[in-house]
Amino acid sequence: MHFLGKNLRHLRKQTAKTQSEIASLIQKGQTTIGNWENGISEPNLNELLIISNYFDIPVDKLLKTDLSEDHIESRIGMGRPYDHSGGIELSAVREKEENLTYVLQEIKDIRSEMQQIYARLPARSDATDGEQ
Q1: 93-128 confidence digits (pLDDT tens)
Q2: Cα separation, 26 vs 47, whole angstroms
Q3: Of 90, 51, 56, 89, nearest to 73 (Cα)?
Q4: CATH code, 79
Q5: Domain carrying residue 74
Q6: Does 125 fall in a domain?
Q7: Residue 109 domain-assigned (yes or no)
Q8: What is the pLDDT of residues 17-34, one digit of tens each?
Q9: pLDDT band at 1 (very low <50, low <70, confident <90, very high)
Q10: What is the distance in angstroms between the CA of the first residue and the CA of the last residue of the chain?
Q11: Relative to the CA of 12, which of 31, 88, 106, 127 has its CA 20 to 30 Å away?
């Protein structure tokens, strides 16, 4: 049994994030996040890695452990300061969000540069010239 939907909802609420905020992070719609939380659909591998990195929790734990029952170990960003209500410090969340935004922008820039490079390359022929 995997706990992805339940854990995503738990982590999102623990960090006081809305479905829209998580959707924006992953560049999906709010409905998609709701569908993931309700087990109607699941994220692809890239989306799962973004979620894992954002909440600073290993993918296997995100999938295999019921974090709502794992109160001590489920805390996001082990070793970071927490408030008394069990949520993580807001500055730590903002820092992670800023870092992830930066990384996502870098990925977009690299993709754009790669597309420009590919556009300048001569077209390749599928036929193998000179080979028999």
Answers
A1: 667 777 777 788 888 888 888 888 888 888 776 555
A2: 7
A3: 56
A4: 1.10.260.40
A5: 4-120
A6: no
A7: yes
A8: 999 999 999 999 999 999
A9: low
A10: 53
A11: 106
